[in-house]
Write a structure and sequence with these properties.
The protein is an alpha/beta fold. It has helices at residues 81-92, 108-119, 141-144, 147-158, 176-185, 224-237, 251-260, 270-273, 277-291, 309-316; strands at residues 9-11, 14-16, 20-22, 44-46, 63-66, 69-72, 98-103, 126-130, 165-168, 190-193, 197-200, 202-203, 208-209, 215-219, 242-245, 264-267. The protein is 32% helix and 19% strand. The strands form 4 sheets. It has an 8-stranded parallel β-barrel, surrounded by 6 helices. Bound molecules: ligand RRO. Ligand RRO binds at residues 25, 49, 72-76, 104, 130, 132-135, 195-196, 217.
């Protein structure tokens, strides 16, 4: 008989069936794909960021492919939280997986208003708070690159919900662990990292930027080493769970994030390349554990052996 592997984990008493999620902005609102995707196999779905009012987003071009990745400047295009509640949530409620609503806003009051509208609805199990969009003038990094503001948003939202509160952090700061510590101190239950890395691309024929907003957010395998280092830094600083995000393209990549200290992973840009990748990784993690006689995927979390300096030194001598 095949050895069974424990896959679930809990945040604030809420149990997720496994540690693999699809990242905000890479899976629509979750409803469009249901005919062709076994959503019930996922630990959960994180919705596109929801703002109070609908937003058209930035003018095109707003995506461009780069080496091992992509740049985006979507600009928080979304249907707004009220339309989400009316048209998307009724479908999402029928899914046999956990739905996490991602919230973005340009003021603390707006974050609170969006959360309160969602609080009175059934079907959302947790919130991921986006303080890290690199592509909007108001909100976004105005919050996420300011530690005091990030802490204040967390403080206000914490007062308004008893559901798991996950804060999504930006890598575009000097010490991401200071931000993680600040939100943990204000009662956040988990952090997600990383959002995209600010980048740009230029068309040398026209000498114009390839994105309408000049700079955008870089994602995909190109940023995986950055993301891993940030997860490792944050894992050493806080004890609340980390959702690791950044260019995960295989089971092996997901394992790296777990070893670095992530309790769970989110698959993002690679969903566009291989839509069923997240499900493959759910199965791949279990298989890896069975092959290595690990009875709980959680045993991989933070299991990095960082004491390699001496042996590397030895091999040089
Ligand atoms: O919509 C976007 O431009 C966007 C968002 Br909200 C985000 O959080 N990260 C990103 O790279 N793009």
């Amino acid at each position: 008989m095949e050895q069974s592997v424990h896959t679930s984990f809990s945040i604030r008493g809420f149990e997720f069936k496994n540690r693999v999620f699809v990242a905000s902005g890479t899976f629509g609102y979750g409803d469009e794909i249901r005919e062709v995707f076994p959503v019930e196999k996922l630990g959960g779905i994180i919705t596109k960021s929801l703002s109070l009012k609908p937003r058209d987003g930035n003018p095109p071009p707003r995506t461009v492919e780069t080496a091992s990745g992509m740049l985006n400047s979507i600009g928080l295009a979304n249907i707004g939280v009220k339309a989400f509640i009316e048209t998307k949530l009724p479908v999402l409620r029928t899914f046999k997986t956990s739905i996490i609503a991602n919230i973005a806003a340009s003021s603390i009051d707006e974050y609170c208003e969006v959360l309160e509208l969602l609080e009175s609805e059934q079907g959302i199990v947790a919130y991921e708070i986006n303080v890290s969009c690199p592509n909007v003038k108001e909100g976004g990094l105005n919050f996420g690159a300011d530690c005091a503001k990030t802490a204040q948003v967390t403080h206000e939202l914490r007062k308004r919900t008893s559901k798991p509160l996950i804060i999504k952090l930006t890598p575009n700061v000097t010490h991401i662990s200071e931000f993680a510590r600040a939100v943990a101190n204000e009662g956040a239950d988990a952090v997600s990292l990383i959002n995209t890395v600010i980048g740009m691309a230029i068309d040398i024929k026209t000498r114009k930027p390839k994105l309408s907003t000049v700079t955008g957010g870089l994602s995909g395998p190109a940023i995986k080493p950055i993301a891993l280092a940030k997860v490792y830094e944050v894992a050493k600083a806080i004890s609340i769970p980390i959702f690791g995000i950044g260019g995960i393209a295989s089971t092996e990549d997901a394992i790296e994030f777990l070893l670095a200290g992530a309790s769970a992973v989110q698959i993002g840009t690679m969903n566009f390349v291989e839509p069923l990748l997240s499900v493959k990784i759910v199965e791949g993690l279990e298989q890896y554990c069975r092959q290595n006689n690990i009875d709980d995927i959680g045993k991989l979390v933070g299991a990095l052996d960082a004491n390699i300096g001496f042996s590397i030194l030895q091999s040089w001598l």
